[in-house]
Automatic annotation (TrEMBL):
InterPro entries: Plno_GlcNAc_GPI2 (IPR009450). Belongs to the PIGC family. GO terms for cellular component: glycosylphosphatidylinositol-N-acetylglucosaminyltransferase (GPI-GnT) complex. The lineage of its organism: Eukaryota, Metazoa, Chordata, Craniata, Vertebrata. Its main location: membrane. Pathway: Glycolipid biosynthesis; glycosylphosphatidylinositol-anchor biosynthesis. This is Phosphatidylinositol glycan anchor biosynthesis, class C. GO terms for biological process: GPI anchor biosynthetic process. Pfam families: GPI2 (PF06432).
Length: 294
């Protein structure tokens, strides 16, 4: 009910519940809408800033495309496992050196890992992966190829959906496990155990180590970060186009939508945002009540 329903100006209305007043329970006066606030704390986005942040999503799509391209080359015998292993080793060493350069002493934490500890972790992982490669090669022999491909596609999609784009380092456990599961499924369809070992080592480099380096570039070298994202997108489209032209076109459309169209829609739709706040909102306690918890 509005202010016309008041019995008269002789009795002023008070916004209290503990006092009996000659007004209906839903009565409000003219001051009700005076406290209306619109778009309080609204954040304004700039188009190119949103495009830059969306580049993380685009480069991750490209990482998946590059991994699939490498697997297609190995399946067709166009890429030997020795070449992939040597290339992965060189990339890992260069990436590790760049990561150390970009990491300042204050970011390493109270007890930073030593290079010896990193070497031990890498040696243990590579040793176990190499030892279990014959087992992983025969892991899906009783499963049809179509089922393996379907599982790989679903797991790679789960990897992209659950990837922590806001903070890629370290990669999320669900995202990383989904990517490694898809890698095992695809590697089991390669000709030999050495192919499986090379593919899994490449998967670790792409899905586990690369996001850590990407986060360092994002924090300490923002201009280079943008160039790296663009390079990954171009490499993903070009690599996939060498094997499947239709897939490259779809990837290019997806990258354009994610990195250019979606930010444009976000900025345009931000103008129509209309959030209202007022006395009808729930009460918020801003006082520090921690002293009452002891």
């Amino acid at each position: 009910m509005g202010p016309d329903s008041a019995p008269g100006p002789a009795v002023p209305w008070q916004k209290v519940l503990w006092e009996r007043q000659p007004f209906p329970d839903n009565y409000v006066d003219q001051r009700f809408l005076e406290e209306l606030r619109r778009n309080e704390g609204l954040r304004q986005y700039r188009y190119w800033a949103v495009v830059k942040e969306a580049g993380v999503v685009g480069q991750q799509l490209s990482c998946v495309a590059i991994f699939i391209t490498l697997w297609l080359y190995m399946e067709q015998g166009l890429l030997s496992p020795e070449t992939l292993l040597s290339t992965s080793l060189v990339c890992a060493l260069l990436g590790y050196g760049l990561y150390q350069v970009l990491t300042s002493p204050g970011e390493s934490g109270c007890e930073p890992r030593t290079r010896l500890a990193d070497l031990q972790s890498a040696t243990i992982f590579l040793s176990f992966t190499f030892g279990f490669s014959p087992v992983l090669k025969t892991l899906t022999e009783s499963v049809s190829t179509d089922t393996v491909y379907a599982m790989s596609a679903v797991m790679l999609l789960a990897h992209l959906v659950s990837f922590p784009y806001a903070q890629p380092s370290p990669p999320g456990s669900l995202s990383l496990n989904a990517a490694l599961f898809a890698s095992v499924c695809l590697a089991s369809r390669l000709p030999g155990a050495l192919h499986t070992f090379a593919m899994l080592s490449c998967a670790l480099l792409v899905f586990a180590l690369w996001p850590c380096l990407l986060q360092r570039l994002r924090e300490n070298a923002p201009s280079q970060f943008t160039g790296v994202c663009v390079g990954m997108c171009v490499g993903g489209v070009g690599g996939l186009g060498s094997q499947w032209l239709g897939g490259a076109v779809l990837l290019a459309l997806a990258l354009g939508s994610v990195t250019l169209l979606c930010p444009l829609l976000l900025v345009r739709l931000q103008r129509h945002k209309d959030n209202i706040h007022g006395p009808w909102d729930e009460a918020e306690i801003h006082e520090d009540l921690s002293r009452f918890l002891h």
